[in-house]
């Protein structure tokens, strides 16, 4: 354990958060202060309606931003974007113009840039002769200062207009959901003009000491420990679950929260998680694009601040085997410009019908597109959570809770009731009865990948490292698709002479029936559920390469295209990038495993084996019983042999697969012939050796040393 670390003292700039919240953001308030009213109006229009910003407006904004940034001691600016690498990218330019001898920031530099795009993944979209891409300012996400650099949130697209990032499809999916949800809302309230998706991200993470991190090549290279015997369970409970947050970690939390708050990220809760060394941070929900940018930025902030505290923060989904993994719970809802959360049940029967309409549509969309949702969260890291019998399973299902289950069951059954003119339909169908508050904490199911939690859906299967734009784009699109269909189905009923409310109820009843199989209230971790789900015909796609197959489907490509979110070329390009990413990650893990085993584990085990042999010979020479020593030698030898032969065969498998030209086959090969065939097997023997070999000799830092920070 690392002893005597200096604790970093953290003092907030002010006891009142409101004194420093958003001070590093050039947000609406700053713009209002520093821009002429006519310019400010144009920027607000661009934010609200997505209209283009003209060059003279851009010039004015750039000038105001520059003044603001210089006053904060900022020297450089960058377009800040989210390429498909999974992290954020920046290229810093100085404000200083050597020719002019002063600081400059042109409107054109604010609005558009051409980063050297050739080094970002593009999945074959950019051919070599047209390797350029450009970034373009997204005024709906505020400009901010981070690490003395002015950061301008941008989209990243190819010269032919295809998206090369996560943000572009997300922004388009926000339009899609608005387009589809608005007509439905207007069935209930004609005053609604816009529907926004909102998102609150609960972020789980591990924290370990920086020096211990650096001493584990697997954590450094792969973000995950490929070997390591898990600590005793009692230890976990004692040290963490019931414990308070260790002071070092608490100081770290305080500091990154302060930095986040200055950046306008509304972090609000923090606590210990189940596993030792695991914690969670959650901001208050925001409009989905902002929440996504804020989550990406928050991860960067945490990473940078951890460094100062001699800590390392791990966002990998499963850094330690046998210990709980980390997710990123995506709390998603739809909110109108009139301030109504469409997933908030109320005491008004009319609003409750609207609530049920959106609820049922969402459930139906998950049923219709479970495979797409599954693909949207697929990654090499997340496979360690989803596929294993640990939360949540790779089977997509929806949890609604007892109250709503009852309501939907009623509606489905009682729908046959003949409703005469003047009848109180809401009474007859039991819709008036939905309690306004069903935010009941006892009615929670932690094992569900997609749960209704009182006034929002919580997509809990998203990985802790993921850019949430991917899953949120998928969710927006599938719900938009169902809502479009819903509008058509309601219209059909009404054309058949049905009164509006009756028409809506009839369609809802059908959707409830059609999508019933996706609803599951039981224990998602149990083996029974796997069997039951198979009987219901639900998919259980445990590994990323097979989960990603969905992007090859013509209907899925058409779905994205229909909603103007991605064209088929963009979908297949993304598929390729994700496969490539998967292959690389498994490749790296496999190499790290091989290197550690051959260069560290086996030599150590052999020298320990020699010691044992000496010892056995000594006992024998004295005429003493040495049968126990012989047994241990045999054990050690067996595991050394297993590790050696496993690694050799794994290297052969990799060599063979690297010749495979077809990327889908290569990825599936890496899954089956490398990962499934060898990872667990090799690990099993290494972890056995960890228990057998003298602690003094063991070359790797152990779990129990890493996981309990003081
Ligand atoms: P719990 O998961 O225990 O319900 P919270 O109620 O604090 O915890 O919510 C968790 C996250 O969900 C927070 O980020 C919160 O801001 C967010 N959230 C709450 N209401 C909504 C909503 N209507 N839309 C999106 N996110 C929401
Ligand atoms: Mg939650």
Structure characterization notes:
The model has no long low-confidence stretch (mean pLDDT 90). The strands form three sheets. Strands 10, 11, 12, 13, 14, 15, 16, 17 and 18 form a nine-stranded mixed sheet that branches. Strands 1, 2, 3, 6, 7, 8 and 9 form a seven-stranded mixed sheet that branches. A two-stranded antiparallel ribbon has the order 4-5. Helix 9 crosses helix 10. The protein has three domains: 17-165, Glutamine synthetase, N-terminal domain (Ubiquitin-like (UB roll)), CATH 3.10.20.70; 174-566, Creatine Kinase, Chain A, domain 2 (2-Layer Sandwich); 581-706, Four Helix Bundle (Hemerythrin (Met), subunit A) (Up-down Bundle), CATH 1.20.120. With 710 residues, it is of the alpha+beta class. It is globular, with a radius of gyration of 28 Å. It is built from 24 helices and 18 strands. It binds adenosine-5'-diphosphate and magnesium ion. Magnesium ion binds next to loops. Residues 202, 329, 458 line the site of magnesium ion (MG).
The major pleated sheet works out as: 9 strands, mixed
Pairing-aware structural class of the strands and helices?
A: alpha+beta
Helicity range of the residues?
40-55%
CATH architecture title of the largest domain: 2-Layer Sandwich
Q: Might you state the CATH topology name of the largest domain? A: Creatine Kinase, Chain A, domain 2
Shape: globular
List cofactors, ions and other ligands.
adenosine-5'-diphosphate, magnesium ion
Give the tally of β-strands. 18
Q: How many structurally independent domains?
A: 3
Number of continuous helical runs: 24
How far apart the termini lie comes to: 9 Å
Strand proportion, as a percent range, falls in 5-15%
Radius of gyration: 28 Å
Task: Report low-confidence residues grouped into runs of 5 or more.
Answer: none
What is the CATH class name of the largest domain?
A: Alpha Beta
**Average of the residue pLDDT scores:** 90
Domain GS catalytic: 166-601
Domain GS beta-grasp: 75-161
GO molecular function, one term: glutamine synthetase activity
Pfam families: Gln-synt_C, Gln-synt_C-ter, GSIII_N
């Amino acid at each position: 354990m690392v002893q005597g670390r200096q604790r970093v003292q953290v003092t907030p700039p002010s006891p009142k958060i409101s004194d420093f919240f958003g001070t590093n953001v050039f947000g609406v308030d700053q713009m209002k202060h520093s821009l002429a009213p006519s310019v400010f109006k144009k920027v607000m229009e661009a934010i609200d309606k997505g209209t283009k910003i003209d060059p003279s407006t851009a010039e004015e904004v750039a000038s105001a931003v520059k003044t603001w940034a210089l006053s904060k001691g900022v020297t450089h600016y960058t377009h800040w974007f989210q390429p498909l690498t999974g992290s954020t990218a920046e290229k810093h330019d100085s404000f200083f113009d050597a020719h002019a001898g002063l600081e400059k920031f042109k409107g054109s530099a604010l609005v558009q840039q051409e980063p050297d795009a050739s080094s970002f993944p593009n999945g074959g979209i950019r051919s070599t002769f047209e390797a350029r891409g450009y970034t373009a300012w997204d005024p709906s996400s505020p400009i901010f200062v981070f690490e003395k650099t002015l950061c301008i949130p941008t989209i990243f697209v190819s010269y032919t207009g295809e998206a090369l990032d996560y943000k572009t499809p997300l922004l388009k999916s926000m339009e899609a959901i608005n387009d589809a949800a608005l007509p439905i809302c207007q069935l209930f309230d004609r005053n609604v003009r816009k529907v926004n998706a909102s998102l609150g991200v609960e972020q789980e993470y591990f924290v370990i000491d920086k020096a211990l991190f650096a001493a584990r090549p697997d954590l450094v290279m792969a973000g995950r420990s490929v070997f390591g015997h898990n600590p005793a369970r009692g230890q976990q409970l004692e040290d963490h679950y019931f414990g308070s947050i260790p002071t070092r970690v608490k100081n770290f939390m305080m500091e990154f929260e302060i930095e986040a708050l200055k950046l306008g990220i509304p972090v609000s809760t923090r606590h210990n998680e189940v596993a030792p060394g695991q914690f969670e941070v959650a901001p208050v929900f925001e409009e989905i694009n902002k929440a996504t940018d804020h989550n990406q930025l928050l991860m960067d902030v945490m990473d940078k601040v951890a460094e100062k505290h001699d800590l390392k923060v791990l966002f990998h989904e499963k850094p330690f085997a046998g210990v709980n993994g980390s997710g990123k719970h995506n709390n998603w809802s739809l909110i109108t410009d009139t301030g109504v959360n469409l997933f908030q049940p109320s005491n008004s029967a009319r609003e409750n019908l609207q609530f049920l309409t959106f609820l049922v549509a969402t459930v139906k969309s998950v049923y219709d597109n479970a495979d797409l949702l599954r693909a949207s969260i697929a990654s090499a890291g997340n496979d360690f959570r989803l596929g294993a019998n640990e939360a949540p399973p790779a089977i997509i299902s929806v949890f609604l809770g007892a109250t709503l289950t009852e309501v939907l069951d009623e509606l489905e059954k009682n729908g046959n009731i003949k409703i005469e003119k003047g009848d109180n339909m809401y009474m007859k169908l039991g819709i008036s009865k939905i309690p306004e508050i069903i935010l009941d904490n006892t009615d929670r199911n932690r094992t569900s990948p997609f749960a209704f939690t009182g006034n929002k859906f919580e997509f809990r299967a998203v990985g802790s490292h993921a850019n949430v734009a991917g899953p949120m784009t998928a969710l927006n699109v599938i719900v938009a698709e169902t809502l479009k269909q819903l509008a058509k189905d309601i219209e059909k009923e009404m054309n058949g002479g049905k009164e509006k409310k009756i028409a809506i109820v009839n369609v809802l009843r059908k959707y409830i029936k059609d999508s019933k199989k996706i609803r599951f209230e039981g224990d998602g971790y149990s083996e029974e559920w796997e069997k039951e789900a198979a009987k219901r015909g639900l998919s259980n796609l445990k590994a990323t390469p097979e989960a990603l197959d969905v992007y090859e489907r013509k209907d899925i490509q058409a779905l994205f295209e229909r909603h103007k979110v991605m064209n088929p070329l963009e979908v297949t390009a993304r598929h390729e990038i994700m496969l490539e990413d998967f292959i690389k990650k498994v490749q790296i893990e496999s190499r790290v495993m091989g290197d550690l085993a051959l260069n560290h584990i086996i030599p150590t085990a052999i020298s320990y084996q020699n010691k044992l042999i000496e010892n056995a010979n000594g006992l024998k020479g004295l005429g003493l019983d040495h049968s126990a020593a012989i047994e241990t030698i045999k054990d050690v030898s067996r595991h050394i042999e297993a590790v050696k032969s496993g690694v050799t065969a794994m290297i052969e498998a990799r060599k063979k697969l690297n010749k495979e030209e077809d990327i889908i086959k290569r990825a599936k090969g890496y899954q089956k012939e490398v990962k499934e065939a060898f990872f667990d097997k090799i690990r099993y023997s290494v972890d056995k050796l960890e228990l057998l070999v003298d602690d003094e000799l063991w070359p790797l830092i152990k779990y129990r040393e890493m996981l309990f920070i003081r």
